[in-house]
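Review form for a predicted model. The reviewer records the input and the model, then writes brief findings.
Reviewer: anonymous (R2)
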Amino acid sequence: MTTVVIIDDEELFRSGLRMVIESRTGIDVVGEAADGAAAVSVVRELRPDVALMDIQMPNVSGIEATRRIVSLGLDTRVLMLTTFGMDRYVVESLRAGASGFLLKTVPPDELVAGIVTVARGESLLAPVILRRLLAEWTTRWQPDEHDPRLDRLTDREREVLRLIGRGLSNAELASHFHLAEPTVKTYVSRILAKTESRDRVQAVVLAYETGLIRPGSQPTG
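Model under review:
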C-alpha cells in the first residue's frame, strides 16, 4: 500500500485530491496539512511514501517545507503541485529536494500514475523539460565549480552525468557508450551514491549548479 499526505492551503482542493486518490486501489491518504510548517510535522509523524506538496502556501512555503522534509532523512518523497507551470518555482522546488512536479490541472489518472512513479523511487520530470527549465534558470545563479561531490566521480561517470543532463535515457546512454543497459544502470547508481543524490533529477540539478553542465553545452567524446 502506497501512503500519501496531501499538503495544500485550500481545503476544497485537498478534499478533491483525497477523493481522486482514494478511488484507486493500492493508495491510501493517511494525512493532510494546510501549510508548510504543519506539513513537516505531519510527515515526521506519519512517514508517508509520498507528500503531495503545493508550492505557494502561507507562512512556510512548499519549497521551504520540502527542504525541511528532505533534511529529516526519511524515505518520504515530495511531489510538487503547481499552477505556475514551468517557471522558477519549479526549479527551486527541485533544488530543495523534490522528486518531480505536476500541474494542479493534471487529469486524475496522471496524478495517480505520478504518485506511483515517485513512490517507486523514480523522478517525475521528463528529461527534456528538466533540461529546458535548468537551462533557463541556471543562467541566474553562479555555479559552484568546487563542489567536492564531483571530485568523487571518474571521468566516465562525469560524462554519463553530462549526458543524463541533456536528456538521454539509459537505453540512449548504452548506445552512446556501446555498453549493455545494465552496465549503464550501474553507472547511474554509482553517480547517485557518490553525489549523495536521491534520484536522477537531483544529480542533474547538482551538475547544473556546479557548472558541469552549462546551458547550450554539447556532450564530448
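Findings: Residues 137 and 168 are 20 Å apart (CA to CA).
Further findings: Strands lie at 2-7, 27-33, 50-54, 77-82, 100-103.
Recommendation: see findings above.
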